[in-house]
Write a structure and sequence with these properties.
This protein has helices at about 35-50, 75-85, 105, 110-115, 130-135, 140-155, 170-185, 200-205, 215-230, 250-255, 290-300, 310-320, 330-335, 345-350, 375-380; strands at about 5-10, 55-65, 90-100, 120-125, 155-165, 190-195, 235-240, 240-245, 260-265, 270-275, 280-285, 300-305, 330, 355-360, 360-365. By secondary structure, it is an alpha/beta fold. The strands form three sheets. A nine-stranded mixed sheet has the order 7-8-6-5-4-3-2-1-9, sandwiched between helices. A three-stranded antiparallel sheet has the order 10-11-12, with no helix packed on it. A three-stranded antiparallel sheet has the order 13-15-14. It binds iron/sulfur cluster (SF4). Iron/sulfur cluster binds near residues 15, 18 and 67. Keywords: 4Fe-4S, Chaperone, Cytoplasm, Heme, Iron, Iron-sulfur, Metal-binding, Oxidoreductase, S-adenosyl-L-methionine. Probably acts as a heme chaperone, transferring heme to an unknown acceptor. Binds one molecule of heme per monomer, possibly covalently. Binds 1 [4Fe-4S] cluster. The cluster is coordinated with 3 cysteines and an exchangeable S-adenosyl-L-methionine.
Length: about 375
């Protein structure tokens, strides 16, 4: 299994409007955003992270959000220049930018490519008009498909996201929609089940009985359709929600799931850095204006920067690694935690068909186990 490498996550916290299901750190600023101010703050925070973790080789950069495709290509280019000044960037580094597929944003694609972005991840979310409207998305199906086509002509690599298990969605309708998506799909698809997060407008509707998500049986059928349809098309899940043709996996996300090292910059970004051989947890201030002011005053917006306990590292390693189809390296778990997973628990879960060993050294969750992944991880973590 290749080493995870070092990744840099850049969080752009602004969106044109707030989607009713979203609980990400995203903010709407009707008066506009001073991109010059934020670029200067990103530069300073990147330099701070490089001082904490000098000499790394950057294998991937990921612009997430929020809506990073609201950044100008100059802002993106300025941040990439700052990363290049702070660390050595591998010549074949994966540089991904999340984009919303409206026609306005598609106009910036060439600028992002010129700035160094070589992979886009498009938030398509649905390929039918009614569901796009219900999800509060600002693009049409036609715009999304045009953006996918344009992205594939400009960037060497592209991915798009869909949300399923939407209110009223049948397995047959999802099979048709997913097949259409795969026909258009570049090389990578992220397929997320709609979850109702507390504090969102969807949660209020759900509680009032005005929004119904599929029942357990339908959810399971939708999950099965997802796996069968993508496997048949040669895009199996390499992670619980991510599907790729062989070799087209997201290198950046593999850094997280393989429990690698990464710096997070921008409001509400998280990082895990090895400092003096200790793995540290880092998080920044979530509010954009407070973050910018903190960086201007102190050179960083960190609100958490502390070593992780051995137990916390062991839990994170299991939580992340067991999401992957390749599973976890049991010897690495031992090195990290100083203990071995309880063989009786492994045997019980194996008998139940939830996990399986791969050779002597690896353990992975089975297809039967993935729909109940949280319970499997909790059981193994003991
Ligand atoms: S575009 Fe993405 S980050 Fe922004 S509100 Fe919608 S789901 Fe949230």
């Amino acid at each position: 299994m290749s080493e995870p490498g070092f990744g840099v996550y850049v969080h752009w916290p602004f969106c044109a409007a707030k989607c009713p299901y979203c609980d990400f750190n995203s903010h709407v600023r009707h008066k506009g955003v001073d991109q010059g101010r934020y670029l200067a703050a990103f530069r300073r925070e990147i330099a701070h992270m490089a001082a904490l973790a000098p000499g790394r080789k950057v294998a991937s950069v990921f612009f997430g959000g929020g809506t990073p495709s609201l950044m100008t290509p100059e802002t993106v280019g300025g941040i990439l220049d700052a990363i290049g000044a702070a660390w050595e960037v591998e010549p074949n580094a994966e540089i991904t930018l999340e984009a919303n597929p409206t026609s306005v944003e598609a106009e910036r694609f060439r600028g992002y490519r010129a700035a160094g972005v070589n992979r886009v991840s498009l938030g398509v979310q649905a390929l039918n008009a009614a569901d796009l409207a219900n999800l509060g998305r600002m693009h049409t199906v036609e715009e999304a498909l045009a953006a996918v086509e344009l992205a594939m002509s400009i960037f060497p690599r592209a991915s798009f996201d869909l949300i399923y298990a939407r209110p009223g969605q049948s397995p047959a309708a999802w099979r048709k929609e997913l097949s259409q998506a795969i026909e258009r799909a570049p090389e990578h698809l992220s397929l997320y089940q709609l979850t109702i997060e507390e504090g969102t407008p969807f949660h209020a509707l759900y509680r009032a009985g005005k929004l119904k998500t599929p029942d357990e049986e339908t959810s399971r059928a939708l999950w099965d359709v997802t796996q069968e349809t993508t496997e048949r098309a040669g895009m199996p899940a390499y992670e619980i929600s991510n599907h790729a043709r062989p070799g087209a996996e997201s290198r950046h996300n593999l850094v997280y799931w393989r429990y690698g090292e990464y710096a997070g910059v921008g409001p509400g970004a998280h990082g895990r850095l090895l400092v003096d051989d200790l793995r540290r947890e880092l998080s920044t201030e979530r509010n954009p204006e407070l973050w910018a002011a903190a960086v201007e005053a102190d050179g960083h917006g960190l609100v958490i920067d502390e070593p992780l306990s051995v137990e916390a590292q062991a839990d994170e390693f299991l939580l992340m690694g067991l999401r992957l189809a390749e599973g976890i390296d049991l010897a690495r778990f031992h090195r990290l935690s100083g203990r071995r997973l309880d063989p009786r628990r492994i045997d019980d879960l194996t008998m139940d068909g939830m996990v399986e060993r791969v050779g002597r050294d690896r353990l992975r969750v089975t297809r039967e186990g993935f729909p109940v992944l949280d319970a499997v991880v909790a059981d193994l973590a003991g």
